[in-house]
Amino acid sequence: MTESFDLYYMQECETRHARLAMLAVVGWPLSELIGPNFMLQNGCAPSVLNGVNPITAVAIITFLGYVGAMEVGTWNRRTADTKLGEIHREDMKNIWKNGVAGDYNFDPLGLYNKLGDDAMGRKAMRKMEVTQGRYAMLGITYFAFYEALTGHPIVANNPFFHPNGFLPVAGLGYLVWSMLYELSDLREYPIKIQKSKLGKELDEWLERRSQSS
Question: Residues near 99 by Cβ (< 8 Å), separated by ≥ 6?
Answer without folding.
Answer: 77, 79, 80, 85, 88, 89, 92
